[in-house]
Amino acid sequence: MRTDASQAAPNGGNGYVALTYDDGPDPSTTGALLAALRSAGVRATFFNIGRRAQANPSLVRAQQSAGMWIGNHSWTHPHLTQLGTAQITAELTQTQEALQQATGTAPRLFRPPYGETDANLRAMESQLGLTEVLWSVDSQDWNGASTAQIVRAASNLQAGGVLLMHDGYRTTIDAIPQIVANLTSRGLHPGMISPATGRAVAPDGRRPPGTQTAVPPDETEHG
Ligand code: ZN
User: 180-190: per-residue pLDDT in tens?
Assistant: First the structure.
């Protein structure tokens, strides 16, 4: 099928975007959020708060088993650029440890609370092997946006872009079907965030749904 889209990606779409959910896990919303994402057939990135992850490790494992990617969002959600080096280190490393304990893997992605960053914080992220991830579109769900307003914000996503949302609002959960329908209509696919670039890319190297080619069993690697 030919289209007029001159920037079409080779796999039959216009590229990838990343859906991100901050500030969880939250016993009152994480389960419903994961159910909505699974029902829509999409994967997202969860930037978890360390102390909440430590208090709710089963929810972190639920994120993982639902196919979500997991990132570090600090231990207590402070204004990190106002803290000293020792405090910043503790905020980052305690969260790495709690998430590693829950999932078996240390995160590679970090989102600073409030998007506040500076050269000092970036240097410390880098020492821990973390890639800083901000966003290209803010859903404003944290600011009382309605489901319709969240959907409208998501319609501004472009290929490679990252949408800021939060685990904690019913409005955000209710927006998922319409967000996915809008992306699909524009040939965009929810993907993962590349630890190399901080931008949205194909999920785990796989192709978009519908174009995936099965790997023959004798060519799979075990390990
Ligand atoms: Zn946050």
Answer: 999 999 999 99
Residue 141 designated active-site: no
Task: Please answer whether residues 206 and 41 qualify as being in contact, where contact means their C-beta atoms are separated by less than 8 angstroms.
Answer: no
User: 81, 69, 66, 80: which is closest to 33 by C-alpha?
Assistant: 66
Q: What is the pLDDT of residues 44-68, one digit of tens each?
A: 999 999 999 999 999 999 999 999 9
Question: How many whole angstroms from 207 Cα to the centroid of ligand 1?
Answer: 30
Residue 76 phi, psi (nearest 5)? -125, 5
Would you state the structure tokens that stand for residue 159, as one six-digit string? 């290929």
* 166 catalytic per annotation: yes
Buried b (16+ CB within 10 A) or exposed e, 93-115: bbbbebbeebbeebbbbbbbbee
Cα(142) to centroid(ligand 1), Å: 9
Q: Return the number of other C-beta atoms located less than 10 Å from residue 176's C-beta.
A: 23
* Cα-to-centroid distance, 114 and ligand 1 (Å): 6
- Among the options 23, 166, 167, 189, which is catalytic? 166
pTM of the complete model: 0.87
- Catalogue all structural domains in the chain, each as residue range(s) with its CATH number: 16-201 (3.20.20.370)
